[in-house]
Amino acid sequence: MSTVIRGRAHVLGDDINTDLHCSSKYLPGKDNAYIAQHAFEQLVPDFPARFKAGDVIVAGKNFGINSSREQAVHIMRAMGVAAIVAASFGRQFFRNCINNGLPVVECDITGIDQGDEIEVDVGTGRVAVPQRKIARTVAALPAEVQAILAAGGLIAFLQKHPDWTLERVSSDR
Q1: Angular region, 111: left φ>0, alpha ψ -120 to 50, beta rest
Q2: Could you tell me the pLDDT band of residue 163, with boundaries at 50, 70 and 90?
Q3: pTM for the complete prediction?
Q4: CATH topology of domain 5-160
Q5: Burial of 60 per CB tally in 10 Å (0-12, 13-18, 19+)
Q6: Is 97 helix (H, G, I), strand (E, B) or coil?
Q7: H or E segment at 71?
Q8: Domains of the chain by residue range
Q9: pLDDT confidence of 96, banded at 50, 70, 90?
Q10: Nearest in space to 88 (alpha carbons), one of 58, 112, 116
Q11: How confident is the model over 149-159, as pLDDT tens digits?
């Protein structure tokens, strides 16, 4: 997946848990499209109104902590989030993003501001904000993860590749 994702940055802070992504006050009973209209409003009251499909969320450390709520990723997909760049992620959230085809990159976000045009390439491991002359190299996602993202998520990948298996890893490591 060496396609470059370009979008406008929406900067959030540190320690953003999934209840702030999609408030539990809407659960259960509301569909993801409705909840997407209220995403992050506890942090930034006008966030849903100014966020446009194709934009990129940029956050500090521990984005997506405290929950394995996969619905948070579904809601961001419904919003049209193109990618998430954060200093660090909650591990379950990071994996939920991959499983649902939402590109995520861990990167130093210093100097990236609200509204900046940001470029993310998960295949080459590059995050850039050209107008600020920011170009950062990050760990490229493994080829298998890139294939899952390119397919639109784990289920879509497995449907496309029903005979796919992991190579056996030697136990004498």
Answers
A1: left
A2: confident
A3: 0.89
A4: Aconitase; domain 4 (3.20.19)
A5: middle
A6: helix
A7: helix 71-79
A8: 5-160
A9: very high
A10: 58
A11: 999 999 999 99
